[in-house]
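To illustrate the input format used throughout this study, we show a single complete record. The first block contains the structure-token representation of the backbone; no residue identities are included at this stage. The design step must infer an amino acid for every position from geometry alone.
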């Protein structure tokens, strides 16, 4: 078994699954906006970055298939497709202001059109994280059956708390989700095991990046996310360093109290190893 070191290519494409918490608590404020807007904006930016990085001529090469799964009481794919299809079919474009160097030592503000594939929620709901991981598991198994020699799939979960569904005790929901995610992490192909990384959109636990020990995170919700996170493979450490993330021995790919930059760094880390520095 190799160690998750295969890169995305048109012949051996990657699978990136992003799980996006859309429960009612994601309507709370965070980083100057709502948590749901904060997270969906980051996801849209990263999808666009991946498409642009893989552009070749008039269109991106299909080196990756991306699926974004939203979860509250319901679980559904918010967008799903090859890079070429995603590039051609955003929901719409938003006009954003972007600061850029003017070439003379100053900064100018320019308007850019940002494609949007994922919208923030506007209604309350529960947190069926288990259902989201179940759908991700189904996608992973189907993908590996058809792409046994491709890079091992990567799942990135963005949440502000713990699973809660079907009126069950949150501890039961956490235990059931840990069991399922361990099953997912045991799935492998010729490249290695499926990888699961996590970002917590909440400041209660305090800032922790890529902890290597469970005791580094105090809050039960944070410890739960630590438990369902993969250890960073050796082959991913260069991508972690490039994104200014810790690379210590035994580090797990999770960030707590992630700000906007760190959330984008985590998603880029999870996908950039597979891309290398291809143009």
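Output of the design step:
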């Amino acid at each position: 078994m190799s160690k998750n070191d295969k890169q995305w290519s048109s012949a051996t494409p990657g699978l990136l699954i992003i799980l996006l918490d859309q429960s009612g608590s994601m309507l709370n404020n965070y980083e100057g906006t709502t948590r749901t807007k904060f997270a969906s904006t980051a996801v849209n930016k990263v999808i666009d970055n991946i498409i642009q990085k893989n552009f070749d001529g008039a269109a991106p090469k299909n080196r990756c298939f991306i699926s974004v799964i939203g979860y509250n009481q319901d679980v559904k794919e918010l967008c799903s497709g090859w890079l070429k299809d995603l590039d051609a079919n955003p929901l719409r474009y938003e006009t954003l202001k972007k600061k850029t160097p003017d070439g003379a030592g100053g900064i100018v503000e320019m308007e850019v059109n940002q494609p949007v594939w994922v919208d923030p929620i506007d209604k309350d709901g529960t947190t069926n994280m288990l259902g989201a991981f179940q759908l991700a598991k189904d996608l992973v198994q189907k993908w590996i059956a058809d792409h046994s020699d491709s890079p091992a799939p990567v799942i990135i979960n963005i949440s502000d708390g713990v699973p809660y569904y079907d009126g069950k005790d949150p501890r039961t929901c956490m235990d059931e989700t840990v069991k399922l995610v361990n099953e997912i992490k045991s799935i492998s192909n010729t490249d290695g095991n499926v990888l699961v990384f996590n970002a917590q959109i909440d400041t209660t636990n305090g800032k922790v990046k890529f902890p290597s020990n469970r005791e580094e995170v105090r809050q039960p919700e944070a410890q739960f996310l630590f438990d369902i996170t993969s250890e960073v493979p050796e082959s991913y450490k260069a991508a972690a360093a490039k994104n200014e993330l810790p690379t210590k021995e035994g580090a797990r790919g999770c960030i707590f109290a992630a700000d906007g930059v760190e959330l984008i760094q985590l998603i880029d880390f999870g996908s950039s190893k597979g891309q290398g520095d291809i143009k």
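Structural context for interpreting the output: The longest helix spans residues 35-53. The helical segments are 35-53, 83-88, 129-146, 170-185, 220-227, 237-242, 260-275.
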